[in-house]
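Chain and backbone:
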Amino acid sequence: MEFQETDLPGVIKIFPRTFPDKRGYFLVTWGDGAYRDLGIEGPFVQDNLSSSAPHVLRGMHLQNPHQQAKLVTVLQGAVFDAVVDVRVGSPTFGRWTAVNLTAAGGEQLYVPRGFAHGFAVTKGPALVSYKVDAPYAPEAELTLKWDDPEVRIDWPHGLWPTSGPVLSEGDRSGIRLSEFEDGVLPRYDAT
């Protein structure tokens, strides 16, 4: 297994080892040993699966309290996967990074607790699997505005019509990073 650190500490792009043969291929998408060596401890308590049509953008989501770390894998299609550091007091607060994840490549993205996460479909339909280390808590869900002009995620051009991406009602009503009330966002812990 190979990995690549991103611009944000703890956010890791993972390239699992693939074993191809004439039937197709085999790869391990989670196992204690090699992932633990990367600092991905788990335990993961829930597996989620989303199916998204072309032009769909999902995000930018997080929970606080009941924060979740996520291990994201694309099973069909491809996505542009974006992450924003929203930990108050972090040296990288408000910064974002993004990677391309494809079913064909088998890449994964690890998103630690304290980061907002979302993706835009670049080849659809896209089937995205993500393991989380805490259950979904609707009362703790927060949504950062996907096009927050202060964060300025550089979404790839041409992914959606001029009217913009296909969004859920919840994603459409996300708020700017500067609009979250004091105490709502997670705090940075240097330890």
